[in-house]
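Project standup — Tuesday

K.O.: blocked on the structure for the chain from last sprint. Re-posting the sequence here as requested.
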Amino acid sequence: MKKLIALLLALVMVLGLCACTVQKAPDPTTGETQVNNETQGQEPAATTTEITLWTYPIGDWGTQETVDALLADFNAAYPNIKVTVEYLTYTDGDDKVNMAIEGNAAPDIIMEGPERLVANWGAKGKMVDLSDLWTDEAKADIYASVEAACKDANGAYYEYPLCMTAHCMAINKTVFEETGAWQYVDAETHTWTTENFLKAVQCLYDAGYTNVGAVFCSAQGGDQGTRALYNNLYGGTFTNAEHTEYTMNSPENVKALETLYNQDGINFDASINGGEEADLFAQGILQMAFCWNAATHSARTEVIGENFEVFPMAFPSENGTDTQLCGGIWGFGIFDNGDDAKVEAAKTFIKWACDENPVEAVKASGFWSVRQSVADPYADDELKSVYGTFMQYMGDYYNVIPGWTEARAAAWAMLQKIGTGTPVQEAADEFVSIANAAAAG
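H.V.: unblocked you, prediction finished:
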């Protein structure tokens, strides 16, 4: 009897031990039995999602040291997302991306501007619609011109923007003061009217400065300056609002180009491009530059030296306040690689950079935030802060129109013809014919 009781007690103990370990069915691929860790009191292993970021050289976003520091901050907040970075150049970056797309190996995140993310890869159906990132709060905070550039005609958002810059012009303040032309400048707002701009040029010309400003047109380099100049003078536009047609032959634009051609001190110069024009200005040969921004200024500080003071200006408009500057926009897009987990991880990174950590992420670019609420990242740099005030004048980002490459080439050819005496209306009509044919495909 005692033996029977002992045997029963032993059996109960064995059954109790078995109940403490819950086992899964054998793995059909290995035949091994797997233990459920949860029943052992252990936490399941965290899942790491690996994503790739390819970035063009947008300031120090093209520098590994800077990006590594940003990623360290990101991983401190999101340790379960690993980001691998590849740095592109503008020489062969597009070819690398296109080859990756064709080989089904596109990166998860790409950093660039609307010309590529929206008008190119987005239009071809390669990108993820980021509409869910564009909350009402984001739309209210981001400049309207930037928002418009980040979506297609159907309202799909293929870019979530981080930073921007607005190209401006500059004048030789020293010479302006010496000649009396300074009276035509609103020094507080860095703006002026079309009438006062023309008066200032005439004042400098009458003082002996025959090369006040140059409408450069040897090639397309810096053409954001010439376009902003003649579009702003009398309220013309380069394209229609829908970005489907070029409008350079409008009465406003024709009047602007005729005014520039007839103005003493303004010369159409087919021997230089925008960078060369900026050099001539820095050397004191020209008294104003139409191809200018903070980076241009910084690169020529030593040349300018103590010869004169550069004063950055918005382009002139009829009332002086409705100036529309050309500029650049940079941000992030996501390629549709068919992996929902990677898409969500990519969105997490983008929101971290643009929404949660915008000051440092923007500062790495060397540009300015697309958000009106973000504090000036260059508050300790008085001159650079001045350039930051021009962001409010960012105009329509028409660069996303079809036929853009052909239109840029036709635009400087148009200026060359005007400079050699071709009637403005004729040259503008020819430009529109070429550009709209390209836009129609």
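K.O.: great, moving the ticket to review. The chain has 18 helices and eleven strands. Residues 405 and 438 are 9 Å apart (CA to CA).
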